[in-house]
Specification:
heterotrimer, A alpha+beta, B mainly alpha, C mainly alpha, A: Rossmann fold, OB fold (Dihydrolipoamide Acetyltransferase, E2P), 6-stranded mixed sheet, 5-stranded antiparallel sheet, 20 strands, 33% strand, B: mainly alpha, MetI-like fold, two-stranded antiparallel ribbon, 74% helix
């Protein structure tokens, strides 16, 4: 365990005794749609978030994930559908009465108030007694480990510190749900990773339900219990990080999560479930029959095959089987514990990731052959030409 | 499944806003109402009444006042004089003001600030005070004459005040800040890298100025010129104090007709003409500005 | 070899301008700029020494030093009445224009207003119309109903003239204001009104204050409209100055001018300081 993680762990244990236990509530989004004129920002999205769950809304820019979050917060109203928290229907409730915490992308700390006043603001709006407010602010500050910063102004804080104050302000009134809109986007990598851990541990300690918007799939996979992938306003797939990584249900999800190789080819059965995907005259890869539930009809066997870089095995030409996929190494990238090979196969450039040990003999320009386990290949119907 | 939820009945009024980023229509109207009412009562109504009155006589509606302006040579002469003085003042302000705006933009640190302060102080001083200052300067027994006499440059005092020259000089002084500030603002928004790029590509300082700086500062030049010209057209105080009978301008004539001759319909007609010319200028300006913007971007 | 010694090849290729001209051109330019700046600032400042001069006619440079003209100003009931009248109007105008203008700017920048463009144009129109036309129009409305020389008449007229300045400065600062802060305030439980007073207003205060100062000066310094709608019952300081310049030219006017200038200067400097402090 690194020093930082050890430090965090012990602080977690200490804080777990001090922090109040929040019971997160469920969030039910049903058939929500939002249109701006002719533009469909969100189209018929339904998600059930469990109490205390950490759910990420993942998608590229403009996918509608932020719009969806804004609707949960109450800043935009849905054209169709409903939003419930616990057993309260919030669809028509104004944003200041929803009682949901929110952390904004640029923190939105009030520049004219001190840190303490910022955190106290939601309590002031709820008309709590002064002494009570002071006590809660103190506790919130120690929860984010910025105890002595109460008199500072937001402009005097670093990005990471501002983010933590924003979290403190959003949780000080003990909301059942916490919304976060790409809160770590403006920070550098190291700080981001540190704060990801902090946010996750805070969430587990408080037990609050978190809905987290991000375009960074690594971040989503690291932090979430489940991830909902949003594209063009629609929910593409929702599942645990492992689900999405190992069992993507669409080319979009397969491509968006992690690194994925795609090949165009024809699937030909070799008996029962087994078969091979043939890529022109460059060879083939073993693959299981597409499930009957998928749309690959038997008439057209044109498929898009998807394989993760680390599931491909690479051999020098002549050392593989006679049906292996053939290619030429275009470049080799040494990353320390593994190597990434960029292999040209006809029109496509495939990435192959192998451990550094045992692949040192392969070089740029080498003719190679690739094969893999049949369960590693996912088949998707070839999408119509757009 | 959508909308199986029960509607929460209260506060639906607030929610006619599709977004919390904007104020609802109802609230916006309420906020803007005092402004609209004020302007309707204190601006639209009086000006409307003025235009209406310019067509009125005891007998009914007529355009005779406007026709009088057209046919009596005196008034066309005055209109022409007003326009040409305004034009002169605008050009003079431009020629004098652009260098100052340019220098203030280029100056380092404190000098630039000092120059702008020297532009702002006259701007913040009342027109009356500045006109009075010019009287002090240009009188027969005024400061300039005294200095010239004592210095032996002249033997009899110069006749400066109550001439067209005095009006032009004083108006230029008053309106210079209105020309300088928009140009300064425009110049400041030109990235300094552009001049460096031009120089790197082989342009000398003069070429850089005429081909890069000046064209990019044109929006400021237009804005400043328009403001200066419009203000000059309608100027009352300075020509009234510094001008003589031979330098009657539209504003002074309007003033006379209203307070001395009590010929309100005619005064209204004259005002109507002034208003019309101003309106025309604004429209032409906006057209030219959008055209020039298209040329710049296209 | 000579080329290497004489410097970069580029300079050898460029035609050399005569060294004299290279020095003269910027010098000439500086002289022109200096002259214009001098032209700008001198007449404004000339009133100050005149107001301290002891001769009862205009004299420059003034010989003696005296405060007699200031004393005359402060002791003269007519002058004091005019000053007080102008101050009353200016202060009331400031309050009215600031409130009305700020509310209007809010509606135009952050609201959904039907016909927003029309309202925007309307809000700025008093600035485009020549003051003489404004003066005559208002006079024609006020005179028949006896509103000349009347405090409320002046208040309405001056508020109308000042409101565009407030709208411009407040709109500018509102547009720079991050609307997300208001959303954050609402998320914390604040109603729109609460969010405005606790979060929006404190952050747009420099713009509002600047607008207020402009409104004050627009009213206090206003000469044309004031000339037309002043009468014996109520006369502004500008009207009295105008009359005295025409009929009673004494250095008292210089003293009054200096006082007015000082007020303007103090107010505007205050605004600049406020704005530059907020930017830091």
């Amino acid at each position: 365990m690194t020093a930082m993680m050890r430090d965090l762990r012990s602080q977690e244990l200490l804080a777990a005794r001090a922090a109040p236990k929040l019971r997160g509530q469920t969030v039910t989004i049903s058939g929500v749609s939002k249109r701006y004129g002719a533009v469909r920002a969100v189209e018929d999205v339904s998600i059930e978030v469990g109490a205390g769950e950490f759910l990420s809304l993942l998608g590229p820019s403009g996918s509608g994930k932020t719009t969806l979050l804004m609707m949960i917060a109450g800043f935009e109203s849905a054209n169709e559908g409903s939003i419930r928290v616990g057993d309260r229907d919030l669809t028509y409730v104004p944003p200041n009465e929803r009682g949901i915490g929110m952390v904004f992308q640029k923190y939105a700390l009030f520049p004219h108030m001190t840190v303490a006043q910022n955190i106290a603001f939601p309590l002031k709006m709820r008309k709590l007694a002064k002494a009570e407010i002071a006590e809660r602010v103190r506790r919130a500050l120690s929860l984010v480990r910025l105890d002595d910063y109460d008199h500072r102004m937001p402009s005097q804080l670093s990005g990471g510190q501002q983010q933590r104050i924003a979290v403190a302000r959003a949780t000080v009134f003990e909301p059942p749900v916490l919304l976060m809109d790409e809160p770590l986007g403006a920070l550098d990598k190291k700080l981001r990773e540190q704060l990801q851990l902090e946010i996750k541990s805070l969430q587990q300690r408080l037990g609050v339900t978190v809905i987290y918007v991000t375009h960074d799939q690594e971040e989503a996979l690291t932090m979430s219990d489940r991830v909902a992938v949003i594209n063009n306003g629609r929910l593409e797939q929702i599942g645990t990080p492992v689900d999405l990584y190992d069992r993507p249900e669409s080319i979009f999800v397969a491509d968006f999560i992690g690194k994925m190789n795609f090949l165009k080819g024809e699937w030909i059965s070799s008996g029962g479930e087994n078969g091979r995907v043939h890529v022109g005259d460059l060879g083939s890869l073993p693959a299981l029959a597409p499930h009957s539930g998928s749309v690959v009809s038997t008439a057209s066997r044109r498929v898009r095959a998807a394989i993760r870089p680390e599931r491909l095995q690479l051999f020098k030409r002549g050392h593989g089987t006679e049906h292996s996929l053939k290619g030429i190494i275009e470049s080799v990238i040494f990353v320390g514990s593994y190597r990434t090979f960029l292999v040209r196969v006809g029109d496509d450039l495939l990435q192959v990731q192998t451990s550094a040990a045992g692949s040192g003999h392969l070089d740029r320009g080498d003719m190679v052959e690739m094969t893999c386990d049949p369960t590693a290949v996912k088949l998707f119907p070839e999408p119509p030409k757009s | 499944m959508s909308s199986s939820a029960t509607k929460v009945p209260r506060r639906t009024l607030l929610l006619d806003a599709a977004s919390a980023r904007e104020y609802s229509t109802g609230l916006s109207l309420a906020l803007a109402a005092p402004l609209i009412v004020l302007l309707a009562l204190a601006f639209i109504y009086p000006v409307g009444k003025l235009v209406w009155a310019s067509f009125a006589t005891n007998a009914g509606y007529t355009a005779e006042h406007y026709l009088r302006i057209l046919y009596e040579p005196l008034y066309l002469k005055i209109l022409w004089r007003t326009i040409s003085i305004a034009l002169l003042v605008t050009v003079a302000s431009f020629l004098l003001g652009y260098p100052v705006a340019y220098a203030a933009n280029r100056a380092k640190g404190k000098w630039g600030l000092l120059m702008i302060v020297c532009v702002l102080i006259p701007l913040w001083t009342s027109v009356l005070v500045r006109s009075y200052a010019w009287i002090l300067l240009l009188q027969r027994k005024g400061i300039i004459n005294n200095l010239l006499l004592e210095g032996g440059f002249i033997s009899t005092p110069l006749r400066m005040i109550y001439t067209e020259g005095a009006v032009i000089v004083a108006m230029t002084h008053v309106l210079l800040p209105f020309m300088i500030l928009p140009i300064f603002s425009s110049l400041k928004s030109i990235p300094p890298d552009l001049a460096r790029a031009a120089s790197n590509l082989g342009a000398g300082p003069v070429q850089t100025f005429f081909r890069v700086t000046l064209p990019l500062s044109l929006p400021g030049v237009y804005a400043g010129s328009l403001m200066t010209f419009i203000l000059a057209l309608g100027f009352y105080i300075t020509p009234a104090l510094l001008g003589g009978p031979s330098t009657l301008m539209m504003a002074t004539v309007i003033g006379q007709q209203t307070t001395e001759l009590l010929n309100w319909p005619f005064a209204s007609a004259l005002s109507g003409v002034l208003l019309g010319v101003t309106f025309l200028l604004v429209v032409v300006f906006r057209r030219t500005l959008s055209l020039s913007k298209e040329v710049q971007l296209g | 070899m000579v080329d290497i010694l004489s410097g970069s090849p580029a300079s050898a290729r460029r035609p050399r301008s005569a060294p004299v001209e290279a020095v003269l051109r910027p010098l000439f330019f500086a002289a022109v700029v200096g002259a214009v700046v001098f032209f700008l600032i001198l007449p404004t400042l000339v009133v100050i020494p005149v107001s301290f001069g002891s001769a009862s006619y205009i004299e420059f440079p003034p010989r003696g030093f005296t405060l007699k003209w200031y004393a005359d100003y402060f002791r003269d009931p007519d002058w004091m009445a005019a000053t007080w009248f102008s101050l009353k109007i200016a202060v009331s105008t400031t309050i009215a224009a600031t409130v009305i203008g700020t509310l209007g700017a809010l509606a135009m920048v952050r609201g959904r207003l039907p016909g927003k463009e029309f309202v925007q144009v309307l809000a700025l129109s008093p600035m485009v119309v020549p003051h003489i036309v404004m003066a005559v129009s208002i006079y024609l409305v006020f005179a028949p109903i006896g509103l000349t020389g009347n405090f409320f008449g002046f208040l309405v007229a001056h508020t109308m003239l000042s409101v565009p300045y407030v709208v411009i400065t407040v709109s500018a600062v509102l547009q720079r204001f991050d609307a997300t802060l208001e959303l954050a305030a609402q998320n914390c439980g604040a109603t729109r009104t609460q969010a405005f007073f606790w979060v929006v207003l404190p952050n747009i205060l420099p713009g509002v204050a600047a607008g207020g100062v402009f409104a004050f000066l627009a009213s206090f310094d206003e000469a044309t409209v004031a000339f037309f709608i002043s009468d014996v019952g109520g006369k502004t300081i500008t009207r009295k100055m105008f009359e005295d310049i025409d009929f009673n030219l004494t250095p008292v006017i210089a003293a009054v001018s200096t006082v007015i200038m000082l007020i303007s200067l103090v107010l505007m400097t205050g605004v600049q300081l406020l704005q530059s402090r907020k930017q830091r």
